[in-house]
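User: Some background: our group keeps a shared notebook of sequences we're curious about, and every so often someone picks one and asks for a predicted structure to add to the entry. Today it's my turn. The entry only has the sequence so far, pasted here. Could you supply the structure so I can complete it?
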Amino acid sequence: MIDLGISKIALIGAVALIVIGPEKLPRLARTIGTLLGKAQRYVNDVKQEVNRSMELDEFRKMKDSVEGAARDVENSIQTNASDFEKSWAEATSESGSTSVSPPSTAVPEYKHPKKNWRLKAGSTPAWFKAKSGVRTKAQSGAARVARYRPRPSSRA
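Assistant: Of course. Here's the predicted structure to add to the notebook entry:
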């Protein structure tokens, strides 16, 4: 890294003030600041992308190890299941031809829920509409004006 102390920065500023001039120096400083900001954002984006790719590689390795373990467990279950099936077949063949079937379960008949299907389930109750001031009846503009027009006072 470049080692910039206060004295070096002051020297660079003085030279820039003499060479560029006091009129153009603020605009140049803003331009340099925006360019440095863009460069920093670009570097941060690249760092984030590298970190994401490293995490993705780690996740892939972890996924492969978990899948391998799952395959091992599945294979061991299948071998144990085949051993169990063989021993079950031997046990049932020794007992003879008396096979016990599981009790049959009757499927219940469909029963209509007996609800009023015409009733709108998601409607807002009328008492809530009245309490909150929601209009429940449609009126034309002229009817609304006539309804809410102030009554003429009968002063003599």
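Suggested note for the entry: DSSP finds four helices and no strands in the chain. Residues 6-93 form one domain.
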